[in-house]
Design brief:
Elements: H1 2-30, H2 42-71, H3 80-98
């Protein structure tokens, strides 16, 4: 569970990076300037986007598992701050994708 929580956290960071990349590209398209991208390595940019946009699914699974641990009154194998941060990221992701 600890390894999975770290993967979820890294995916959440990739989500932030993907949102920033999209925001920068939209701003440069509005200026009508030639823009080749913020990251010159396209495979790296693609990986960030895929991990970032897939983070909502992985994060949802992680939070459901944490909720089950809480409901069954078992000790959490993950630090509490990491659970709260991932829950906050999930709320941000739900807002970003659905509203």
């Amino acid at each position: 569970m600890r390894f999975f929580s770290k993967i979820v956290f890294v995916c959440n960071l990739c989500f932030i990076a993907a949102v920033i990349l999209r925001w920068v590209e939209i701003l440069n398209q509005q200026k009508n300037e030639r823009f080749d991208g913020l990251v010159l390595l396209k495979p790296l940019e693609s990986t960030l986007v895929v991990l970032g946009y897939g983070a909502i699914l992985i994060n949802l699974v992680f939070n459901i598992i944490c909720l089950l641990f809480f409901l069954l009154k078992r000790p959490q194998p993950v630090a509490k701050w990491l659970i709260w941060v991932n829950l906050l990221f999930l709320l941000i992701q739900v807002y970003y994708f659905f509203f």
